[in-house]
Amino acid sequence: MHMKIYFSLAALLVVVIIGCSSTKTTETTAPSTAAASPASDHGKALYEANCTKCHALKDPKAFSEEKLRKMVPIMAAKAKIDAETQSQILTYVLAVNKQ
User: I want to staple 76 with a disulfide (CB 3.0 to 4.6 A). Which of 24, 53, 86, 89 is the partner?
Assistant: First the structure.
């Protein structure tokens, strides 16, 4: 009988310790531009709305400008994004990349 109580208390203690331990969680969000403008806000909105349809948002700073200029048109074609929207997304990610 006492063994069941000890095991139950030990199990409860493990659950409490695990539940109270700090865990680091990361959430991917679109980076904000330093100087927000209506154009950059619109580019950011298009980036968030269109790019998340296929994958998690990526930090444009993680890629070179050359890579972004190659990647965005390829992904835009796969996602069937029109040329104007693609241009605005590319302008936004390049602006963020330069910060």
Answer: 86
